[in-house]
């Protein structure tokens, strides 16, 4: 290709320079291939050199007349011509041509037109590019001088500015709406706060910002961080901030597809700054700024600004719908329902948009707050339902139901649910008794279940009170679900509500029992726990007295909550009341009582309770029962170990283990299947019952399908708390424990190799045997008996198994005994 301009080489138009394209043209074959001629449809540049042909003597190497010249000869001729041109005035004239099609040449008017044809740029653009190149070279030289002078910090700052300008100048950014942003930079600031403006400039030039057409969550956070830090500096000269910078910052901070909880607060601040800078907001920005002003607490001012935009914004088709929807929302929230209704009517009747009738939900909420406008809220709901037609969804009904429940209008809420279920076929408003199709446990149970599932617990409670007033007594299943949901929130207020409802149900149960005793000729009055009395509150006549009788699930919910909160005395009272209520205890309540006694430091009472409830009340224990019992051992309760209590724990733990094997139960969850074996092994190991630990491990292998995982082996060799607290000491213990486990595995593999096993190819059963062998080796290490002969260890194990009643399971391996006591069920 020829150079951009001949003048850049120092040659005039009459110089003897021959362009490379002419040389290449002479080197081409006479008949070029098809792909070459097709590609030459674009404009190409040729120079016609008017020169008399040189006469050279014919030699032996003379080429034929039509043959292409030798390239080496052409290079020599070109060098000779250039040398002659530099010594004497040239008599050559250079003309410029453009070839649009093969065989057609078009003359060009001078060097400027030639530059346009060759580069595709006009002369002014080429001059700008040349200036930019010179500035870049000068900047690089300046950076080098600053670094040589020891001004490395200033050089780094200048380099960051330089790179930012280049990135933004040539790449640009594209917003979510495909809007383009070119060069973005704020110049003209100096002083101590100029560094903050420079940081904002670096953010504006960051390549990752809006790289995919939309900002990320990090982009939004960084944008506000840098802009808020630079605000004070920018406020000294708002006019130096270009408009495209304002628009770009607005686009990032107003993006709502990411987690941006402070979006409106940021937009409010930004709009105030743009107003101070004299920057005119476009229509979309004005709408968002008005909404941000309203949310930030300036409700009257925002509504006034909205009203002023009715002509400038509200009349434009592209902004008609968002403008009037914003007015409906703001006026409804502000309490100006009349204006909100007029705005909604304008929106819904206009042919300029296709609004969503769900905008009326804002008006329904505003009208439902006041008793005087409650009927109007209901009519607005009916209008919305008529407009939606078949588009009315279950979620729409739920939202209206929640609105009426939140203001205590349960009748309208139930009527909305009836509309959803029966398509407006039944009207319950104003009736003393509900129709049978509505006033039954099945229908009301569905409603309560839906409210509880949606998390509207207070609304569900209001529905229970309303239904009981209509002679529809809620079932215990729904009320127990409400009590459990209140407890799961973990809030103190909800705890109080759940307790009040549960004890009210218990009182209903006691009243029923006393009535039954009175009919039988028995008398008596039971004083039970009253949450109002305990909290020092007076019960008023309006307090709800539930007529639904408590069930065992009600007692279980209270027992679990009291146990988890450490309210041992309350749990004891609950247990006593449960007997008066003539409700048989379950193993779940028994487990909660055992846990509560153990947490209160009354381990012996917990064990006695277990004996009493299993032997006298015939309650069948389960896996959770024995987990709670093993936790009553002193080695699991006391931080400072007592040797005497630890020796007692050996006998007690073995007895618990034997009873666990003899009891008829199965595992009910994978979690307890992992937790119970771990607790048993640690309990026996901490009590220093090493032989009992081996017996328990072998028994659990047969009955539980227990196989010690690598994590448990490391924890056993390192200590129980190693995985619970990630301290430096524990990490070191875990590292040493892992190394020790690897050493034991290698030692076991060597023993197998000595017996003829290949060592590396092991079956699944052999791997399980290896894990159990390592576990027993860990026990022997803890007992300082790792060098004890295997036959001696086996003799002690058999003796312990016979004492614990497990001889048939782990010594004789009786399949009948194993099958009878196997604890694996369908989980």
Automatic annotation (TrEMBL):
<dbReference type="InterPro" id="IPR011990">
    <property type="entry name" value="TPR-like_helical_dom_sf"/>
</dbReference>
<dbReference type="InterPro" id="IPR002885">
    <property type="entry name" value="PPR_rpt"/>
</dbReference>
<feature type="compositionally biased region" description="Polar residues">
    <location>
        <begin position="39"/>
        <end position="54"/>
    </location>
</feature>
<keyword id="KW-0677">Repeat</keyword>
<comment type="similarity">
    <text>Belongs to the CCM1 family.</text>
</comment>
<comment type="subunit">
    <text>Binds to mitochondrial small subunit 15S rRNA.</text>
</comment>
<comment type="function">
    <text>Regulates mitochondrial small subunit maturation by controlling 15S rRNA 5'-end processing. Localizes to the 5' precursor of the 15S rRNA in a position that is subsequently occupied by mS47 in the mature yeast mtSSU. Uses structure and sequence-specific RNA recognition, binding to a single-stranded region of the precursor and specifically recognizing bases -6 to -1. The exchange of Ccm1 for mS47 is coupled to the irreversible removal of precursor rRNA that is accompanied by conformational changes of the mitoribosomal proteins uS5m and mS26.</text>
</comment>
<protein>
    <recommendedName>
        <fullName>Pentatricopeptide repeat-containing protein</fullName>
    </recommendedName>
</protein>
<feature type="compositionally biased region" description="Pro residues">
    <location>
        <begin position="62"/>
        <end position="71"/>
    </location>
</feature>
<feature type="region of interest" description="Disordered">
    <location>
        <begin position="39"/>
        <end position="71"/>
    </location>
</feature>
<feature type="repeat" description="PPR">
    <location>
        <begin position="586"/>
        <end position="621"/>
    </location>
</feature>
